[in-house]
Every structure is written in structure tokens, then in C-alpha cells.
Amino acid sequence: MKNKLTYLAVILFSFSGIAQEDLKKTINHDFELELEAEYRYFYKSPSFEEQKDQFPSLAIRPKYTLDWNKGYESITAEGFFRLDVDNERTHWDIRELYYQKVKNNWELSVGLKKIYWGVTESNHLVDIINQTDAVESFDGEQKLGQPMIQYSLNTNFGAFDFFYLPYHRERSFAGNKGRFRFPIVIDKEDVGYQSKAKEWRQDFAIRWSHYIGAFDIGISHFYGNGREPLFTFDQLGNINAFYPVINQTGLELQVTHDAFLWKFESIYRTAKAQDVFAFVAGLEYTFSNIDGNGLDIGVLGEYLYDDRDELALSALQNDIFFGSRIAFNDTQDTAILIGGLTDLESSSKIFSIEASRRIGNSWKAELEARVFSNIDANELLLANFKNDSFLRFTMIKYF
Amino acid sequence: MKKIILITAVLLSSMGINAQSPEARGLEIAKAAEQADLGFKSSSVDLKMTLKNKNGQTSERDLTTKTLELTADGDKSLIVFNSPRDVKGTSTLTFTHKVGPDDQWLFLPSIKRVKRISSNNKSGPFVGSEFAYEDLSSQEVEKYSYKFLEEKEDILIVEQDPVDPKSGYTRRVVNYNKGKGYRIEKVEFYDRKNSLLKTLTYSDYELYKNKFWRAGTFNMVNHQSNKETLLKFSNYNFDANLTDEDFTQNALKRSK
Q1: Which residues of A touch B83 (CB under 8 A)?
Q2: Which of the ends of chain A has fewer CB neighbours closer than 10 A, N or C?
Q3: Separation CA A284–CA A262 (nearest Å)
Q4: Nearest 5°: phi and psi at B8?
Q5: Which H/E stretch holds residue A8?
Q6: C-alpha span between A82 and B20 (Å, rounded)
Q7: Cβ atoms A318, A308 nearer than 8 A
Q8: Does the structural domain A2-398 have CATH classification 2.40.160.10?
Q9: Which of A254, A288, A361 sits opposite B124 (nearest CB)?
Q10: Tally of CA atoms within 13 A in the half-sphere of B44 that contains its CB
Q11: Contacts of A254 in chain B (CB under 8 A)
């Protein structure tokens, strides 16, 4: 009898317990905040009038996530605001704001989201879903939030991603006081589109990705407003950005063997104005735990080709990238990335160093330097940046 | 005829038990330990890692680990960092293989990039801790050769030599507790020069689902550097019913 009562009590107790547990477990939410103070110093006199040398700047990144249904449904929001000396670099964005549902082997996302495709380090050719936040960083890795409906399906023969992209976002460009610009500031108001629907053209993309043993492969196709603008010059001498309608097929391939990563990325883009073929091919090799204390030194080499020659916006038409990634694997996660990009047809060279280290538990310091060296006067785009070598120091506080 | 074979087999196997080589006994114990832990299907657990340097200064990391049990091949695991804040959301997906290198992907949340990484670096420290990558990867029987050393009451002491020449160890000396489902109580790690490098002690064991022993605390002491790493496990969940779909690159991207 006593046993039975205990049994009953346990059952009742566990029922109420489950109900309470369920409520507690149903919804998780998390708020994070990053505050960043940045100082950029351009040590060469500017090429153009009004350009400044020193750019102190502040940025804020709030992030909120909410999930329920064991994490299989969620809402993610991430904002961004930067205050800078250059009016055009003072900007805000919704990096992400989307609802996601996961069920069995599929995933649906609706809203503004960031998507990354690619395997190489020196250039990101295949990555096309999001517009580049070009005033934010020189390496093109900062992106603007892209409105989309994304449907992903995992199968035994790879993952399929379908994208519906209802709105195009313009690339950001430096203002009067900013560096990395042309003699004339690009007119933000006068943006041209090949499509009559302009930024509201309804665009689509699809990607298949799979991994078989040492091979990781991705094939993608994008049809819509190009992310990379062409520049048009009007009679008044203004420079305007023009976005053509493009078809772009991308291929990503990585072979991971021992400490070697062999990488290949290629795009073929067709548009009324211009067809483009470009690729990056290279390797990364890591000497790990060299000192028995966790020191890893990686060496990177990549070759970059673009058949647009000097019209390539990236100015990477026939170049070699070499670099080294040094990770100390210490408690502060100290890491250094050193790189050099050299043009095989001219004297132009770009050197870079990026270093970061955590300080305490919730701070991080970053250091970046980019040096433009012997930039060839014939480099149509890069020649404008020949005096834009800079040092950047950043402190980030995480809440 | 069949009977004779059967009798011979029985005779041989009973002889085998009597005159078992230390190698065979070591392998048998490792298999028994694997057998005892078979059938957990999937689990998730929260983990607090405390790194202590020789001056006693500490730093902490919080992680969540999900594991999917596979029998034909090695387990799949997904590790997500919750702190320090600057690496929050960084995650790794690992498919361990019984034979050959593991497959591993890293997710970098700031640029949403998934990167296939080399699993070549076994001996390197995991996030600056005293645990090497190989200490935390799924322990498959096939990854070592074995030699039984001695028996002290319920404790069976077995030497394990890593098959992979890239391992940072010449050998590990493992203490199995026969009376408690062959759970591991202690591991001593000998470096490539065969001197004692580290000792890992397991404590605060709890029995889950009446079958699976899981330690609440791992303490790794490095005798050469005098550094220590403490792992505290909490919220063990064996009822998450995770499937292959929770261990894909998409799952890696959405883990946070």
C-alpha cells in the first residue's frame, strides 16, 4: 500500500514537474551587446581634397535571440550602428532579423539574414547573397542584411538551398572625408539599375553542397541584380553606380588531406554589359603544436585570376596571395594573420597584418595594418587608393 | 563433425581465458567498457571549463556538447561555445571514424562561415586548456593497441598505445572500474619521450538510465607545466532524441 501511494505521488509529482519544466524549457532568450571603439590612422597625405587622416569611431552591435520548440523554432535579431568622421561611414543596418523553423531534414528562414559561401581566404568570389558593407572593412567580409526566404533541404546526396531574394541592397561607398574613394564621391541618390523593377527585382538563387570523404563541394547559381556595381560617368563628371542583371554560376571545392587544405573557387557571370570569368586556387598548410605548447603556424598561398583585367572592381586580375596564420592557442586566443598580395603584371603590392587577443573575460583588442606599396599608375581603381595605407586599433567590450 | 569443431572451439576458448595474453586481456577490457556504454543513442550536456595556470590564475569557458551514438562508425558530436563572449556561438562539428582521420567543420559566427578544418592536429591544446584534441574526441576501441597491466580489487589497469603516429602520447595508462560498468577512474598520459605528462582524474560519477556512468568532474593536471584544467558537467540529457539531422552543417550554423 505504501509502495502504491509512493508510486502515485511520484506520478503526480512528475506530471506537475513536467508541466513546469516544459514552461521553463519552452522559451529561451538571450541578449548580447558589443561596444566597439576604433581608431584608424592613414599615415600618408590624402590623394583627394577633404579626405581626413584620422578616424576615431564608435560602433554598437545589439543581438537578441529567442527560441522555443527545443530550439527548432527561433527568432534572431542583430542590429548595427557606427558613428564615424566620414558621414557615409556613419551608418546603421539590420544585419539579421529572421524567423527560422527546423523540421526533420528541412529548414525555413524568413527575414533579413547573412549567408556565406566559399572556401578561399584572399578573395570571396562565390559569396553573393549579401551586399558588401564596403565602408565597414577593406576585406569585404562585412555584409549588409539581405531580405530573403530560404529553404534548406538535407538529403543523402547533399544539401540543397533555395533562396527567394525580393529586394536588392546598394553597396555603401565612402563620403567626402573618407578614404578608399575616387576623386569624385559616388552619388548615392543616382543609382542605376538595368532592371525596370530596380531594387525590387525579384531575385533567386540555388546552391547544392555536399561532402564525400576529403572533398567538400558547392555549386551555386544566382539570377538577379548584381551585387557588384559597374561605374558610369555622366557629362557633369559624376560617377554613378549601375547594377546589371546577372546570371552567376559558382563552384567551391576544398580537399582536406592531412594538414593540407586545397582550395578552389570560381565564378562565371553573364550580363548584358559584361561577362566575367574568375577563379582563386590555392592551399593552406598548418604546422601544428610546433613548440608542444599549442603554437600553430599556417602557410597560405593563392593565385587569383579575373578576365576583366583592369576593370575588375577587386583589382585582383592576375595576382598571387601569400600569407601566414599564427595561432598561439593560449588562454587569450592570441592570433595573427599576415598577408601580401602581389600583382604579376605590375609593381602593385598590398601587405596586411591582422592580430587579435582577448583581454580578461569580456574584452578583445584588434590591430590591423594595410600597406599599399608601389601601386601602378595604370591600375584604374587601385591607383585611387595608393595613399590609403592605414593602421587600425580596435577595442571591443562584450556584455 | 560439427560437434568436434564445437568442442574444439569451446576447449580453445576456455584455454584462451586461462592463458590469455596481456594484449588480448587489455583489448577485452576496452571492448567490455565500450559494450557497457552501448545504447545511449544521443546525449547533450553543459560543460564549464576552468583553466588554471601555475600561479593559480583562472579563466573559464562554457560549452554545450551534443553527441550522437553510431555503432558502424565513430560518434558524431557538436560543440558550441557560450563563453568567453568574443567566441560565443563558435561551434565545431566532428564525425569521428574508427579508422582514419576524423572529419571536422568549424563555424565562425561573425561572418557565418563554415570551414572544413584538418583533424591532423591531435596533440595541440583544446582552447588553451590542458586537454589535447585527442583527449576529448570520441574514444573508439580501434584507436589504440592494448596491454593489460594489473588488477587491484575492482580496478583493472590497462596500457593503451595510440595507433595514430600523430598522437602526442607514447602510451596512456587507464584505470577501469570493473564493478561500475567499466567506467574510467583515472588516466595517466606519457609524452613522446615516455615521461609522465598529465593525469586525468574522473569524479562525481552518476548513473543515468540505470546503465550509463557519467563523471560530473574531470580534472587534468599537467605535471610538466603545473597547469590544470577542470571540467564540470551539468544538465546531462539522455532524452533529447537527437538524430543525424542535428549533426549537419546546417545544424552547425544554427547552433547558438
Answers
A1: 361
A2: N
A3: 7
A4: -60, -45
A5: helix A2-26
A6: 72
A7: no
A8: yes
A9: A288
A10: 15
A11: 116
The stretch B157-170 carries a mean pLDDT of 93
From A288, A330, A362, residue closest to B84, measured CB to CB: A362
SS3 of A97-142: EEEEEEECCEEEEEEEECCCCCCCCCCCCCCCCCCECCCCCCCCCC
Alpha-carbon gap, residue A319 to A308, rounded angstroms: 13
Residue B94 Cα, gap to closest chain A Cα (Å): 13
Q: Do A289 and B127 touch (CB under 8 A)?
A: no
Domain boundaries along the sequence of chain A: 2-398
H or E stretch at B39: none
- State how beta strands A54-68 and A73-83 pair: antiparallel
How far apart CA A88 and CA A189 sit, in angstroms, is: 13
Task: Give B46's contacts in chain A (Cβ within 8 Å).
Answer: none
- Residues of B with CB below 8 A from A398's CB? 84-86, 88
Q: Is A26 on the interface with B (CB under 8 A)?
A: no
Do A289 and B60 count as a contact with CB atoms less than 8 A apart?
no
Query: What is the spatial distance between Cα A53 and Cα A389, in angstroms, rounded to a whole number?
Result: 10
Distance from CA of B127 to the nearest CA of A (A): 6
DSSP state of A330: S
Q: What ipTM score was computed for the predicted complex, to two decimals?
A: 0.90
Place of cell 562539428: B93
Give the per-residue SS3 of A373-385.
ECCCCCCCCHHHH
Better-predicted residue by pLDDT, A309 or B189: B189
Contact B247, B93 (CB under 8 A): yes
The string of pLDDT tens digits covering residues A321-363 is 999 999 998 889 999 999 999 998 888 999 999 999 999 999 9
Residue A3: per-residue pLDDT: 52
Which residues lie below 8 Å from residue B214, measured CB to CB, with a gap of 6+?
B45, B205, B206, B208, B233, B236
Residues 6+ positions from A10 with CB-CB distance below 8 Å:
none
Distance from the A282 Cα atom to the nearest Cα atom in chain B, whole angstroms: 15
* Residue B209, H or E segment: none
User: B254 is written with which cell numbers?
Assistant: 544554427
pLDDT value, residue A2: 46
Contact A294 B128 (CB under 8 A): yes
Interface test with B, best of A100, A154, A331, A394 (most B CBs within 10 A): A331
Reply yes or no: is the peptide bond before residue B165 cis, omega within 30 of 0: no
Across the strands, what pairs with A395?
A37, A365
Angle at B255 between CA A38 and CA B86, to 5 degrees: 25
A·B CB contacts under 8 A: 104
Residues 6+ apart with CB under 8 A from A6: none
- What domains lie within chain B, and their CATH numbers? 22-254 (2.50.20.10)
Task: From chain B, pick out residues whose CB is under 8 angstroms from the CB of A152.
Answer: 250
Other CB atoms within a 10 A radius of the CB of residue A90 amount to 15
Classified as helix, coil or strand, B212 is strand
